[in-house]
UniProtKB/TrEMBL annotation, chain A:
This is ABC transporter permease. Residues 274-386 form the ABC3 transporter permease C-terminal domain. Belongs to the ABC-4 integral membrane protein family. Signal peptide: none annotated. It is found in: Cell membrane. Keywords: Cell membrane, Membrane, Transmembrane, Transmembrane helix. The keyword Iron-sulfur does not apply. PANTHER family: ABC TRANSPORTER PERMEASE YTRF (PTHR30572:SF4), MEMBRANE COMPONENT OF TRANSPORTER-RELATED (PTHR30572). It holds the Pfam family FtsX.
TrEMBL record, chain B:
The keyword Coiled coil does not apply. The keyword Iron-sulfur does not apply. Residues 313-426 form the ABC3 transporter permease C-terminal domain. Keywords: Cell membrane, Membrane, Transmembrane, Transmembrane helix. It is found in: Cell membrane. Signal peptide: none annotated. This is ABC macrolide family export system permease 2. It is a multi-pass membrane protein. It comes from the Bacteria. The chain crosses the membrane at residues 20-45, 310-331, 367-388, 400-422. Residues 23-268 form the MacB-like periplasmic core domain.
TrEMBL record, chain C:
Keywords: ATP-binding, Nucleotide-binding, Transport. Residues 5-234 form the ABC transporter domain. The keyword Disulfide bond does not apply. Gene3D superfamilies: P-loop containing nucleotide triphosphate hydrolases. SUPFAM superfamilies: P-loop containing nucleoside triphosphate hydrolases. This is Phosphonate ABC transporter ATP-binding protein. Pfam families: ABC_tran. It comes from Alishewanella longhuensis. InterPro entries: AAA+_ATPase, ABC_transporter-like_ATP-bd, ABC_transporter-like_CS, ABC_transpr_LolD-like, MacB-like_ATP-bd, P-loop_NTPase. GO terms for molecular function: ATP binding. SMART domains: AAA (SM00382).
């Protein structure tokens, strides 16, 4: 059927067509925006962490009595716990830390190059305290200088992450430089420390003893590949045997921590995807019932057309192309709407712009779903008997 | 009434006659309403006023009192220091005021072998319970704001440790210190917990144990949420002095200002305070006084749940789509029975009678859609809680909320039926019968 | 032009079989004007539908313009119908939302004619039925007789080999009916083959040949030789 006739036929049913258009447009807008949010969540979750997630285990600890929370009792307690853990088969390395990479919260502070506070100050950088074995436990690669040693403990030296070194010193010398947090003796590879710090790969490693355990402390355990679950089962009993007056929190693998890190983004994306699915379903029901009802209304017209020589595929094409035209028109309005919705959402969420390719894919998806939904009613329309339909009542 | 039952029967008959189109309309309407209800539930709990009787009188003052000069630091910190609280407390204008922070510890009964139980603690002052209308079941708040080894328990904590609530005078070991219980709160909750929004604790339950402010500073009990130190003191040692004198920020401070005059007076007080501090050389940063009302506090601390906001936008759009759709389907349905409509009008049914029939349709649709939508909303809420665990405390339905949702369902059903029915009942008579 | 041999059509329901057409033999030569009459339920509509390839038959053969219709696919039948048959229905069967022009043009679109050819043919057909000035009217804006003339124009526009008319004047008053009949007779004089179902004996008499169908069987045709001869001679 010609384009103009098609349009005329749509214009005849202004209200119904307008309703269809509005909902197709909204559907497209929602699909496109949830797709871009899902894509963004995936990007976030797939970015490298610099950590071997599947081999690392976090044990949150807090002494239940104040006398166990301060030095030197605390240092002794942690040493006894660590040696008990290291004796467990399957454990490769274990360290205490004041905070766990990947997790929000912990000790953050500012850092600047001495005498250059104005130009180099960074407000929020994780201060990572821990055993000297921390580098081995976390598999940090040494890029410059040396790592912390037992003899450094409680001295004013620090190791910093590559990203932080770049920010503080650009391309200049790093080793031996004095900062507000101490003298830099080494640079290690980046890991995902704290998502909401000034940069998620910033870290300062300090050879300090844990000053107190008022906020608890963490034991981080690296296991041999595949041994994590076995080790996780044994640890609570092993740690209880060392000291009863310590509250052992929930043991979590780093893989689990990593999943929770982006949970609000992935959660929202999944939610919107579910909603988009529902919306497509609604659009399909609508297209289906519209075509079906319309087909019944137009039985006579279809019968006349069949009598005048329109073949079944031709009738099918007519019904489908009416659907397609509506979908395409609705979808073009939808593209505008999608961009508007993106602007609204970007006010409350950080969200990238909509790529045109995505809009096109959403449009094709919508077209496909509508075609599937229109298929059966269109087939029914072709079954109209021209002999009956052209008869007078 | 006779008419109504006749309309009702006819309504059901019409449904039975064409069950598929009807079912599709209903499904679409209830999916839309269900998604909307689930979101509205979360949104309601997230944004409701937990203290409608006095939220408008509760204020959170902030002063820019950090003692390091910084001309570009215009906004005060999110948390206050002991000194800030002390200075702000030196005003007689508020009818109640309390500094506070959340902590955690381990409690056990004295003279037993039971292990320690982790508990949530709110360190605060005597006016706390008046500020937030926390009702006492037994005993009362502390006599003054001095340090004392006295605890107030929440109903749940009393049951947890003693199995009963009347435990005044009983003792409890908390982190190795022995306290006497002087009060037990009734089973009280505040959702959202607006007094601790700046630590993102708005949808956590209220604390189990309440501990005097000065006692906490004496014993070195610190906040377990946000703390900031802005000087080089060692806060792990001698906290009783360092914590009080140093720049250690961890507290919220709330005041009750009953009238606009009091609020103005308090602002004036804050200005005067800052001016005199500046004179004394203790306020090097720019004046950044803020006085947030409790209802603006989530926005002020940028602690709104953005995911939920985004979902709200989308679910309203979704409801719109479903309404459009359902009305489209229902238009089809009514158009199909248009002939019958015209015939009945030709047989003498007045428009009023037909409208009675239509309103009955609206009611039937509304009730069915409401029930289905509730089912769907439960499923959606389970899914949302699974995906965004932060929302799991927000899925309660109160009778008022349910009633409101029923109203929305009826309204939706009315909108969906109105236009199609209008089309069906007002189309020219003869045109229909002739065709 | 039309050649039907031993044609049978049975309607089956769960309970009964009805023999709608029984061993029908019928030939229509080029340029003939055949009137088909019969009482209600005699099978004349079924026969017309079969002739128009709108309905299938159970046995026998039907040759249209030298081509056997038996066993043709639906698409081939549609094309055949479009090219060789022009329909004129009792209820006009115009598409009410299309203009006169669009209605006439519709079958030409199915044929795949170019826009220019379509335009030329529509104008010609409109000219022939005397409605050239009404091309942008909607069917509802015309009288019944005018509507039927539009339907005739639509049937003519594709230059069919035969016009099948199903009680073309059934819905018209006598004046309009006469106009339509005169138009059909004129078309026949111009060489158009017409098969018309009617129950008006007067109209049947005016046709070149009168065929009667009763209980699914074709009775001997009453042939008005002079008229046929006249038609052929022209």
């Amino acid at each position: 059927m010609s384009f103009t006739l098609l349009i005329r036929s749509l214009l005849r049913r202004k209200v119904i067509t307008a309703l269809l258009l509005v909902q197709l447009a909204l559907t497209l807008a929602l699909i496109a925006n949830s797709a871009v949010l899902a894509w963004q969540a995936r990007q976030l979750a797939n970015q490298p962490t610099g950590l071997t997630l599947s081999n690392l285990l976090r044990v949150p600890m807090k002494p239940t009595l104040p006398e166990l929370r301060s030095q030197p009792v605390l240092g002794d307690l942690m040493a006894r716990q660590l040696s008990a853990i290291r004796a467990v088969p399957g454990v490769v390395s274990a360290s205490w830390m004041n905070q766990t990479p990947l997790l929000f919260g912990g000790m953050n502070g500012n850092i600047f190059v001495i005498d250059k506070q104005d130009t180099t100050n960074i407000g929020m950088v994780p201060y990572q305290l821990g055993s000297v074995s921390m580098r081995e436990t976390l598999d940090l690669t040494l890029l410059q200088g040396r790592w912390l040693e037992e003899t450094d403990v409680d001295t004013e030296v620090i190791v910093i992450s590559e990203q932080l070194a770049k920010q503080l010193f650009a391309d200049g010398d790093v080793l031996g430089q004095h900062t507000s947090a101490g003298r830099v003796i080494g640079v290690v590879s980046d890991m995902l420390t704290q998502r909401y710090a000034d940069h998620q790969n910033y870290a300062i490693y300090l050879p300090w003893n844990m000053p107190s355990a008022d906020y608890g402390y963490q034991l981080v355990v690296k296991t041999a590949p595949g041994q994590l679950d076995r080790v996780r089962e044994q640890l609570p009993a092993v740690l209880k045997a060392v000291e009863l007056e310590v509250d052992i929190g929930t043991l979590q693998s780093f893989a689990e921590l990593h999943r929770t890190l982006f949970r609000s983004e992935t959660g929202l994306a999944t939610l919107l995807a579910v909603l988009s699915g529902l919306m497509l379903l609604v659009a399909m029901i609508s297209a289906y019932s519209h075509a079906l009802f319309h087909g019944v209304q137009q039985q006579k017209e279809i019968g006349i057309k069949r009598a005048l020589g329109a073949s079944r595929p031709r009738i099918m094409l007519e019904v489908l192309s009416e659907s397609w035209l509506t979908t395409l028109t609705g979808a073009s309005v939808g593209i505008v709407l999608a961009l508007a919705l993106q602007q609204q959402l970007a006010k409350v969420l950080s969200m990238p712009a909509l790529p045109w390719s995505l809009l096109l894919v959403s449009l094709l998806l919508l077209l496909l779903c509508v075609s599937i939904a229109t298929w059966y009613p269109a087939r029914l329309a072709t079954r109209v008997s021209p002999a009956t339909a052209t008869k007078t009542l | 009434m006779r008419n109504f039952s006749y309309y009702l029967r006819l309504s059901l008959h019409n449904i039975k006659r064409a069950p598929l189109p009807y079912a599709l309309t209903l499904v679409i309407l209830s999916i839309g309403l269900g998604v909307f209800f689930s979101n509205a539930t979360l949104y309601y709990w997230m944004n409701r006023d937990p203290l409608p009787e006095q939220s408008h009188t509760l204020f959170f003052p902030r002063i820019n009192a950090v003692e390091q000069a910084c001309d570009s630091c215009l906004t005060p910190l999110r948390v206050l220091s002991y000194k800030d609280v002390q200075k702000l407390s030196n005003s007689a204008i508020p009818s109640a005021q309390a500094g506070m922070f959340q902590s955690g510890g381990y409690a056990r009964l004295p003279n037993t072998q039971n292990g320690p139980t982790p508990v949530s603690i709110r360190v605060t002052q005597r006016d706390f319970f008046e500020l937030f209308n926390a009702p006492f079941l037994h005993g009362q708040t502390w006599a003054d704001n001095d340090a004392r080894m006295e605890l107030i328990l929440h109903y749940n904590a009393a049951l947890k440790f003693f199995g009963r609530t009347d435990v005044l005078g009983q003792q409890l070991l908390l982190d190795g210190e022995l306290y006497t219980i002087v009060g037990v709160l009734d089973n009280w909750q505040m959702l959202p917990k607006l007094y601790d929004v700046n630590n993102g604790l708005a949808i956590t339950p209220v604390e189990e144990i309440y501990l005097p402010w000065e006692t906490a500073y004496n014993l070195g009990i610190k906040s377990n949420s946000t703390t900031q130190s802005r000087d080089s003191r060692n806060y792990n040692e001698n906290f009783a002095v360092n914590g009080r004198e140093g720049e250690f920020y961890q507290a919220q401070f709330w005041v009750k200002l009953d009238t606009p005059a009091q609020q103005d007076a308090y602002r004036q007080f804050m200005d005067n305070l800052v001016a005199s501090e500046k004179e004394a050389g203790r306020h090097p940063r720019p004046n950044g006084n803020l006085l947030h009302n409790m209802l603006d506090i989530a926005e002020a601390f940028n602690e709104r749940n953005r995911q939920l906001d985004a979902f709200a936008v989308v679910s309203v759009l979704f409801l719109l789509v479903c309404l459009f759709n359902a009305s489209h389907l229902s238009l089809n349905r009514y158009m199909a029975s248009q002939f019958e409509f015209s015939l009945r009008r030709a047989l003498g049914a007045s428009r009023l009678q037909l409208q009675g029939q239509l309103l009955t349709d609206v009611l039937v649709n509304g009730v069915l859609a409401f029930v289905l939508a509730l089912l769907f909303a439960v499923l959606m809420l389970l899914l949302i809680n699974q995906l965004l665990p932060a929302t799991s405390a927000l899925n309660n339905w109160q009778p008022g909320l349910i009633l409101l949702m029923f109203g929305v369902a009826l309204l939706a059903s009315y909108l969906v039926t109105l236009y199609p029915a209008w089309r069906a009942s007002y189309s020219p008579l003869n045109q229909q019968l002739k065709a | 032009m039309i050649h039907i041999t031993q044609l049978n059509k049975v309607f089956r329901t769960e309970l009964i079989e009805t023999q709608a057409l029984h061993n029908i033999n019928l030939s229509v030569a080029e340029g003939e004007f055949v009137a088909l009459t019969g009482p209600s339920g005699s099978g004349k509509s079924t026969l017309l539908n079969i002739l128009g390839t709108l309905e299938s038959y159970d046995s026998g053969d039907y040759q249209l313009d030298g081509q056997s219709v038996t066993g043709m696919t639906d698409s081939a039948l549609s094309a055949l119908r479009n090219e060789k048959i022009g329909f004129i229905f009792q209820s006009f069967n115009l598409i009410k939302d299309f203009s006169i022009y669009d209605n006439i043009e519709l079958p030409l679109r199915y044929r795949g004619f170019s826009a220019a050819e379509r335009k030329q043919r529509v104008e010609q057909a409109l000219e022939r039925v005397g409605l050239a000035g009404r091309r942008s009217y909607l069917p509802g804006q015309l009288s019944g007789g005018q509507q039927q003339r539009v339907a005739i124009a639509r049937a003519l526009a594709g230059s069919p080999r035969i016009l099948l008319a199903d009680e073309p004047t059934g819905n018209l008053d006598s004046l309009m009916a006469r106009q339509v009949m005169e138009l059909l007779e004129q078309l026949n004089r111009e060489g158009c083959t017409i098969l018309m179902v009617t129950h008006d004996p007067e109209q049947a008499r005016r046709a070149g040949r009168h065929v009667q169908i009763v209980d699914g069987m074709l009775s001997d045709a009453t042939v008005y030789q002079p008229l046929v001869a006249q038609a052929v001679n022209q």
